[in-house]
Specification:
With 237 residues, the protein is of the alpha/beta class. The chain folds into two domains: 67 residues, Nucleotidyltransferase, domain 5 (2-Layer Sandwich), CATH 3.30.420; 154 residues, ATPase, nucleotide binding domain (Nucleotidyltransferase, domain 5, 2-Layer Sandwich), CATH 3.30.420.40. It is 33% helix and 26% strand. 32% of the residues are buried.
Length: 237
């Protein structure tokens, strides 16, 4: 069994892999330290890889694991001006895309705290991408950096947003949500002008709402980052 530990800005996710299949999946808030410890101690695994956007807590030290860094051996090439600053989450997404769609031009759209776009070409060479604020960050920034605009919290059940807002709240929703969807559709369109054969992959916490609103044909895959990390772990055997 392989254990994949994906430690993000707010959540810690564990995946147990049997070969290439996820057999168990756990999600914790980062502050749930005792629950994380208890989960780790209860799991039976042979190898472990950790991808962390924040500092590792000291209790990970007692486990033997591969820490994903820019020096880790990976099964793709990196054509990036500043590889030392390239986030391990973006590396894992690119490796996961290459594993699922070999010899394909892939654009991976991550929809979390930030929206990330990462392009890996059909020759398995990571070329770079883009980073912009995610939906929640955009809503928060309008409230934080203005005097009178309210803080709008996304409704989990709301999937359609009127183009013309009839209130301040609806206007913010239209600007943030419809604006972001149009932004991503526009970027996909520009990539397709360069690469006629392009596989677009959508992942991350907000992937469902993007999948419902983007005009382009996409593959939605919630666990592509975990698949990439498992692929990297196996590559380093």
């Amino acid at each position: 069994m392989n254990l994949i530990a994906d430690i993000g800005n707010t959540r810690t996710k564990f995946y147990l892999f049997e070969k290439d299949e996820i057999v168990k999946h756990f999600v914790f808030k980062n502050e749930e330290i005792e629950a994380i410890k208890s989960c780790l101690d209860s799991l039976d695994f042979k190898k472990m890889i950790v991808s962390a956007t924040s500092d590792l807590e000291s209790f990970y030290a007692k486990y033997s694991f591969l820490l994903l860094t820019n020096k880790t051996q990976i099964p793709i090439g990196i054509d990036y001006k500043t590889p030392k600053t390239l986030g391990t989450d973006r590396i894992a997404l690119a490796v996961g895309a290459q594993h699922l769609f070999p010899q394909k031009n892939c654009l991976i759209i991550g929809t979390g705290t930030c929206i990330t776009l990462d392009f890996i070409d059909k020759n398995a060479s990571y070329q770079g991408g883009a980073i912009s604020p995610g939906l929640t960050l955009r809503l928060q920034s309008l409230h934080t950096f203005t005097d009178k605009l309210p803080l709008i919290k996304p409704e989990a059940t709301k999937t359609f947003f009127d183009l013309t807002g009839k209130s301040t709240e609806e206007s913010i929703e239209s600007g943030v949500f419809n604006g972001t969807f149009a932004e991503i559709d526009g970027i996909i369109y520009r990539y397709k002008q360069i690469y006629e054969e392009l596989t677009v992959i959508l992942t991350g916490g907000d992937q469902e709402i993007f999948a419902l609103n983007l005009k382009n044909t996409i593959f939605a895959h919630a666990n592509i980052q975990a698949i990439g990390l498992n692929t990297i772990l196996n590559y380093n055997e």
